[in-house]
């Protein structure tokens, strides 16, 4: 059964581990240097979102971070991608946290398609990401 709990500082290493595995599996468009760059940046954002660890039978499978009505981050262990867990997590976040906004890398077509399938629509596009790197961002809303 899928469960979640609010993360604390003691969960940050776990979150970074899940993020790195997931990003390597889903963000093949990132250069190795940029992957390292983002890994260094992630800890700066963890205290600014409502961070949840998602688990099955007490075994962590992913994490999410929200602020207000925006989903800032959702990463799953790559072995769990495609198993319906992302759907369950996103549905829970929409229903209980009233999530209506998400930004997604344009080059991450699997994630983009996932959010579009869940009723989100592209409302705008940024040519570069928030760090001024050449990775276009799609801004989605429902």
From TrEMBL:
Residues 2-141 form the N-acetyltransferase domain. InterPro entries: Acyl_CoA_acyltransferase, GNAT_dom. It holds the Pfam family Acetyltransf_10. PROSITE patterns: GNAT. Its EC number is 2.3.1.-. It comes from the Bacteria. Keywords: Acyltransferase, Transferase. It is an enzyme of class 2 (transferase). GO terms for molecular function: acyltransferase activity. Gene3D superfamilies: 3.40.630.30. SUPFAM superfamilies: Acyl-CoA N-acyltransferases (Nat). PANTHER family: PEPTIDYL-LYSINE N-ACETYLTRANSFERASE YJAB. This is GNAT family N-acetyltransferase. It comes from Vagococcus proximus. The lineage of its organism: Bacteria, Bacillati, Bacillota, Bacilli, Lactobacillales.
